[in-house]
Amino acid sequence: VAKYQDRYLFVCCASAYSSYDLYLCGFRNKCYKWGYFTEVPVVSKEELMGKKDKSRNNILWVGRLINGKRTKDILLMSKKLMSHNINFNINIIGSGSYDKHLKVLTKLLGLSGKVHFLGSMPPESVKRYMEIANIFIFSGNFKEGWGAVINEAMSNGCAVVVSHAAGSAPYLIEHGKNGLIYQSGNISDLYNKVHKLLADTKLQYAYGLSAYDTMAGLWNPKA
C-alpha cells in the first residue's frame, strides 16, 4: 500500500469500514464512498405497502447458512420473543453448511412452529417474500463486505434491523429514521430492536416507507 501513497491511485470503498482499515495501513486521503445499487421497483407507496402481511408480525431473513452470517442469533432472539409471548413468524431463505445444525437447534429451542426454513430459491421468489415481509433482519458480522440484500429489503418497503458490522450499515441506515442498527452478536439488543417494531406497527410502517424512499431517492443510479 505504501508505494501508492504518492501516486494517482484512489479506492472506491465497498464498505463503510474500508477507509479506516486502509488508513491504518498508511493509505490516507484516497478513499471514496462507493455505492452498490440494486433494482428499485417503481410503484406507488400505497401499492408497495399494501402487499405487506396485515398481521405485521412477518419477519424475514435471507442469506447463506454459513459461518459469519450469525443465523444462530436469529434463533436465540426468537426464543426470547416466544418466552415473552410475543406473536411472530420468521421465514429463513437460504442454504449452506450450517443448515442441519440450525434446524436441529430450532427443534431443541421449541421454535418449529415459529421459524421456517424455506431453502434456496430464485431471486424473483425471494422478492415476493420481501414484498409481504414486515421486518427484515440482517445479522452478518464484519466478514460482510456490503450486504446487497439490505438494499433489496429496503427497496421492498421492509422495516430493517441491521447488524452494525454490515459494510453498508453506516451508509444505508439512518438509525431511528429508516431502520434500526443493533450491535452484532448482542442478542438482547437484537431482541429489543425487533420487539420495538413488533409492538409499534405504525413505526414499522413508517420505517418501511422511509426505507423505500432512501432507495428510490438516493441509492439507485437514477437518483
Explain how this protein is built.
By secondary structure, the protein is α/β, with parallel strands linked by helices. The protein has nine helices and eight strands. The protein has helices at residues 18-24, 45-50, 71-83, 99-108, 123-132, 148-155, 169-172, 187-199, 201-217; strands at residues 11-13, 31-33, 58-62, 89-93, 115-119, 135-138, 159-163, 180-182. Helix 4 (99-108) links the parallel strand 4 (89-93) and strand 5. It is globular and about 60 Å long. The model has no long low-confidence stretch (mean pLDDT 91).
| Beta-strand share of residues | 5-15%
The general outline is globular
Low-confidence stretches: none
Q: Reading side by side through the largest sheet, how are the strands ordered? A: 5-4-3-6-7-8
**What is the helical fraction, as a range of percent?**
25-40%
Mean pLDDT: 91
Order of helices and strands: EHEHEHEHEHEHEHEHH
Structural class: alpha/beta
User: Kindly, what is the distance between the CA atoms of the first and last residues, rounded to a whole number of angstroms?
Assistant: 34 Å
How would a textbook summarize the main sheet? Answer: 6 strands, parallel
Radius of gyration: 18 Å
> How many strand elements?
8
Tally of alpha and pi helices:
9
